[in-house]
Specification:
Residues 27-96 form the Wall-associated receptor kinase galacturonan-binding domain. Its main location: membrane. GO terms for molecular function: polysaccharide binding. It is a single chain. With 308 residues, the chain is of the alpha+beta class. 25% of the residues lie in helices and 23% in strands. It contains eight helices and 15 strands. The strands form four sheets. A six-stranded antiparallel sheet has the order 3-4-5-6-12-7, covered by helices on one side. α4 (203-211) runs antiparallel to α5. The radius of gyration is 30 Å and the shape is elongated.
Length: 308
Amino acid sequence: MFSPFSILLLFLIPPCLSQTNNQYERCSPIPFNCGQFSFNVTYPFFIDGSQSGCSYPDIGMHLVCTNESYVQLSTMSSTSYQVINIDYEKQILKIAPNYLTYLHKTCPLPSSDAHFDSWLFNYTDYDHIVFFFKCSGQVVGVPSFYQLPCDQTNYYTVIDKSFSLYYGKTYMFDESNPTVEEFVLSLPGDITCDLEYQVPVHASFVNDLINTTVEKGVVTLKEGLLEGFDLAWIPGTGWCNGCVRSGGLCGYDARRPNDTLCLCPDNSYPTSCPLISKLPLTSFFLFVFLVCFFKNLRPTNRVRIGSN
């Protein structure tokens, strides 16, 4: 016979295990199809119709399917990006700026700087191309200053990734190359350039671009820009992958914006789901039954009085 404790345990456990986490169910990954792209949308990204608390609440994480059937990522800086790939495990987003006007142009020219929300993303393996547009004459004899092969008044150079690229003009290259400011100062006195835009590219692409022939230069430049670049997103760093590996979903609590939140089938926890929340109900009952069964098979130590 089962002990009174075992019977009581069987009555007490079902209410506990039958609890469900409504937010966990609401935040299940959402299939997202847009043109040739198809992937699941989950933390930290969201789409129109996503439930609150399932993503990082910032417009910079908003994914939209455009009329041109490509996925667009909006940013607080009013610059949007075409999403090429999302790697949730590595937390890497591959994007290309939408403002680049080279898709149907002979000469690949950007129309503004590339900006992203620095509190949401970090660059990975990249360099920058700095474009100088509408120069008043041909620039000759300036090291590492390359003319766009499709336009005699536009030039570009490559900037090192380890320095600030958005504020000020003293951007450093490597030790053997001058700064952008020095490039401008080294131009012949009668030559000026009206615009200067900076576009990130993969570091592996830079050598191909610099060493290419003039005939192939425009093709190489266009391919490199179209390839896009990688960003590592910041929300969820250090805890979200562990939550997912434990069987949970990463979430967000507006009441405690600085706290981590792992949504599990039975409840929500700070960083990961405990083993009990992942255990199926039938498996747990079987476990309890076997414990009780084998416990009652143990020989008794009671001594019968009066027996010989």
